[in-house]
Each structure stands twice: as structure tokens, then as C-alpha cells.
Amino acid sequence: MLKACVAALGAAGLLAAFSAQALTADELIARNAAARGGLDKLEAIKTLKAEGKMRFIGGFGSIDLTFVQYKQAPDSIRTEATVQGLTQVQAWDGHEAWQISPFQGRRDPERISDDDAKSLADDAPIAGSLIGYKERGAQVEYLGTEDVDGTNAYKLKVAFKNGDVEFVYLDPDHYVEIRTVGQRKVRGTETEDITDYGDYERVDGVYFPFSIDTKTRGDGGEVVLTVDKAQANVPMDAALFAFPATPKSGH
Prior knowledge:
Elements: H1 2-22, H2 25-36, H3 39-44, E1 47-58, E2 61-72, E3 76-83, E4 86-92, E5 97-101, E6 106-111, H4 114-123, E7 139-148, E8 151-159, E9 165-170, E10 177-186, E11 189-203, E12 206-216, E13 222-232
Antiparallel strand pairs: 1-2, 1-13, 2-3, 3-4, 4-5, 5-6, 7-8, 8-9, 9-10, 10-11, 11-12, 12-13
């Protein structure tokens, strides 16, 4: 009887391992889309506005801000972070990135270098890096499973067209993103951001994470976002994301 039980357990383990290996990247992405509400509903969301609280944590301590983030398909993003009447802006319009940095004493918009723009471009797609990856010229590879804080998560590698790499970890039961690890080269230096996702809530029939915690390896600090409110398909003008035009001087 003992041998039979051991054999059965061994067979079950082999079957589970085989099932995990038998999955493909596209099958996992399809399950992810279905779990989040369905591909049709994901693709129907053309804009997304999120509002909430942001906390920066670093060697200086921590600072709390409010934030508003705008996203517009296919790949535009703008984030505003405000504290004590000052608002920092970072935006990407699908072609170039820019920012306003009043906390550093720079109140005029300035363009961001191509290297620094990469993280904005990577974060811009509304549904994340997996949905529609082929249309964006990326490649996705399934790498098996890996432990994420006690969860044996599915691991996918996303190779972006701009050279960045992101590892996406899906919950084995619900197939939603629980972690991403983004790797990119900025001014010749390799950087790595680890982002954990939680508190999924439905917006127009689609589940989005309302808790987003990003840590940068080394001394890059930590950013914690808590979404209080999100709205889909809010009217947005393309000018919201574009580098502000210089006002013409009067004559």
C-alpha cells in the first residue's frame, strides 16, 4: 500500500510538472486575458484614468503625495504627482518623453533622454506588457515556474522592441500578474525594478491592480501606489501627452 501511495504521488507530481511544461506563452496570456475580464473587454478600454496616493520611500525617509495617471491606447501615458501645491509631471506620447520637475527647481517642461524614457514607454500599454505584445514588436517566452513569496508562479519573459526585458509572474490559480521584474540599461548602467501587484478591482468589466509597489535594486528607493478611483474610456486629448508647445510671443 505504501509503495502504491508513493507511486501515485510521484505520478501526480510528474503530471503537474508535465502540465506546467506543456503550457505555452500564448496559452498563459490567453488565460490571463480571460481572468481579467476577456480580451474583447480589455481591447475596448481605450483610455484609463487612475487617482490615488503615492508614497516615495528612500534614504531620506518617506514622502506622501497624491497622483493622477492618464493612459491612452495604444501607448501614451502621463503621471502627475502633487504635494504642497507642487506637481511633478512625466509623460510619453508614443514617440518622446518629457517631464516637469518642480521638486528639483525646474518648472518648465524638458525632454527626457531615450534611456530614461524607456520605463515610461514600457508602462504605457493599458492592459500591461502581455496583451497585444506581438503588435508592439515584442517577444514573449514561457520559462516555467518560480517561487514568488511562497507562490509557485508562472514566469514569462517579455523582450521589448527597445531592448528592455521584463519578467512577468502570473498567479497559478487566477492567472493575473502578481509581480514583474523589469531590466533595462540606462546610460550604460543595468537597472532592475521589482513591482508587486495586488488588490485587483474591476473597472468597466476588467480587473486592474489597485495596489502597486515598485522597488529599485540598489539605492533606487521604493514607490507605493494605492489607487482610490479608476475610470475607463474617459475623453482625453492627445495634447495631454505631447510636449507642451512653446507659447508664441506677442507683437
